[in-house]
Amino acid sequence: MDLSHCHLARLSLILVLKNLRFLDISFNDLKVIDRHIHKLTALRQLVMRNNSLSYLQNGAFSGMLYLERLDLSYNQLYSIEPHTFGGLNYLKKLNLEGNRLHFLSSQWFASMPSLGWLFLSNNLIGRLQSNVFEMLSGLFTMKLDGNRISSIEFGSFNGPPHLRILYVTDNLLQTIPTQELHNLPLLQYLYFDRNPILRIPTFAFHSMNLTMHTMSYMPHLKVIENQSFLNLEHLVTLQLHDNSEFVYIDQNTFVNCSRLKNLYLHNNRLKSVSSILKDSLPSLKTLYLYNNELECDCNAMWMKQENMKEKSNPAYRSVVFGDSLLKCGSPPNRKGSLLRDLPISALNFTCAPVIIPLFKINYNLSIGEELHLECYAMGLPSPTWRLPNRTILDKENVKTGRYEIRSNSTLILRYLYESDTGVYSCQAQSSAGFDLKSTSVTVNNKPVRISAEYVAGNFITISWNGTQNQWSMTGYQIHYKPLGRNSDKFQIIPLDRRIRQFRYTFTNLSPLTTYMFCIVYVFETELYTVHCTNITTNQENHSSTGIIRIDSKMIVGVVTSVFMLLIFGCCVLAIRRVGKKKDYLEPMYSKDTESLIDVIPLKEGFGGGSCGGRYFFWGGE
Which residue spans traverse the membrane (predicted)? Predict the structure, then answer.
């Protein structure tokens, strides 16, 4: 029965149709599910999409024992009770797309052993909890696209061992959930588009059963590292197109992907695709490379040769699709030229290495922070790093200390000093030429300065400013010592970053003595002197009362004392009021009224007491 678009607000007229098998009540005005709907015991398909449902209670569909398809998409659902779907043992398709669900509960799916299709697209789900799908042993297809998923917990995909198709497109994932995906041994189709992933790391997808995989329209993807796709023996189609920042794919990205036929790399910013990569794919039939920023030198030689073979041999079909759209992005004198129009002599068989920088033009950092610079080189040799002092670093001569060079030519410099300011260059040189890309790094001191607030003969109060916005850091210390003595050991005062502390008083000092005070920034195990100043005590000794450091314990003590005094005063006032009221109430209940008359003089026979702002009077004759 089709009752869609009928402006229905209630289902009471339908509930008498007990033999109904199909019911479509989509595009109506239903706000709640009638509590008698379970009387439709013969129903097989129920479509309630595009209504105004916001809440589903326990047992809402409990009588529909043979229901196979339930469509609740595009309502306003934000709350589903744990046992809403209880009893739906034969349900095969559940559609909850386009609602306002913020989380998933494993209890929703506790009684759905037959569920094969679960659609959760376009909700507000932020993360997938561990074991959330553990009861869905028959699940075949799951759609999670268009949510806000930023975290997939370990074990999230425990339970659906037969899952074949998974959509996680258009979410907020910044890393590949490699470990979790390995819990899906039969997964064949994986849609991962439109996630803010920066790189596809080594072994990201390895030893999986994938047949088709897509990671396109990724606005932040820049790099695909070596062996990212390892032992994907069943992979046939891979889409990596329309990634606006994608500039580098390693020549050894694909290892043992012997069945890969279709590789989509168009509409990126790739400088080159190595012939080694192409040769590592023996079944490759079509390679889409158009609309990239190709380096038209020896790196593009194999593409030019493919084009020439196809022209000279009508029976030969090049793996490069759309060679008429292959344009040069560099060198500058060839930018915009079509590769097919260049003579082969213009490309050469050897060429200088080309540096691909992934760093910005300049950086402004503070002492104690960490510098990450990443670059890649097309061709040989691997790039090296030149520091501001002209020292050359590579993986071989960096062992320990603040410097680290990772296998992907990433330079890491920890615990920055002001002296680390300068130009850092990624460079590569071969017999054919030289290339270099640089960035300027400025390391700033913390904006903190010490000043003397009060100076006496035996104590000094100092203050400092500029730390107000630094409380998320490890913290600061004050170091001080007297000058002109044999010992140069500093005394250390740690500052508590949990309270906003901007002054400190040092007592038991010697008169007419110069002291050095330094504020030191602490980052993990490193200490950085931010600012130092010398202050000399006076000849006279003054009391430091009122200037000694006021800490949180003193403040709490004062507040507590005042609070206790207020409570004590309120108790005294209450006792006095009760006492006054008692003087006038006892005569009404006393057995010996005559004796009480002697106690209360007649001239005081009228008294008043207050209760809730009203006055009551008792009088004697």
Answer: 554-575
Poorest-confidence range of 46-50, 287-291, 570-574? 570-574
Q: Which of 417-426, 559-568, 611-620 has the lowest mean pLDDT?
A: 611-620
CA dihedral 323, 328, 334, 335 (to 10 degrees): 130
How deeply is 472 buried, as exposed, middle or buried, from its count of CB atoms within 10 A (0-12, 13-18, 19+)?
Answer: exposed
Please write the tens of the pLDDT for every residue from 596-613.
Answer: 333 333 333 333 333 333
DSSP state at residue 39: G
537/572 same-domain check: no
Say if residue 366 is in the same domain as residue 434: yes
Which has more confidence, 443 or 601?
A: 443
Judge if 461 and 432 occupy the same domain: no
- CATH number of 363's domain: 2.60.40.10
Residues facing 205 on adjacent strands: 229
Q: Please tell me whether the overall predicted TM-score, pTM, comes out greater than 0.90 for this model.
A: no
| Residue 76 located in a structural domain | yes
Three-class secondary structure of residue 298 per DSSP: helix
Asked if residue 464 and residue 437 are part of one domain, the reply reads no
Name the one residue in this structure whose structure tokens are 């497109």: 169
DSSP conformation class of 452: E
Q: What is the helix (H) or strand (E) element at residue 120, kind and residue range?
A: none
Strand partners of residue 404? 412
The 10s digit of each residue's pLDDT in 103-131 is: 999 999 988 999 999 999 999 999 999 99
Tokens of 576: 């006095």
Boundary residue ending a domain (550, 581, 596): 550
Indicate the number of domains in the chain: 4
The pair of structure tokens assigned to 287 is 């390679």
Q: Which residue has the tokens 């037969």?
A: 162
Strand order in the sheet with 362-366: 362-366, 433-444, 422-430, 384-386, 392-393
Which residue range is the domain that position 586 belongs to?
A: 555-618
CATH assignment at residue 54: 3.80.10.10
State the amino acid at position 211 in one-letter form. T
Measured in degrees and rounded to the nearest 5, phi and psi for residue 275 equal -65, -25
Percent of the chain exceeding pLDDT 90 equals 52
Report the residue count for the chain: 621
Query: Are residues 93 and 37 located together in one domain of the fold?
Result: yes
390 inside domain: yes
Domain identity same for 5 and 65? yes
Q: Is 210 a member of any domain?
A: no
What's the pLDDT score for residue 469? 47
Which of the 8 DSSP states describes residue 345? G
- The CA distances from residue 244 to 102, 219, 358, in Å, are 30, 6, 14
Signed CA dihedral, 22, 26, 28, 34: sign only: positive
Tokens of 286: 């079509």
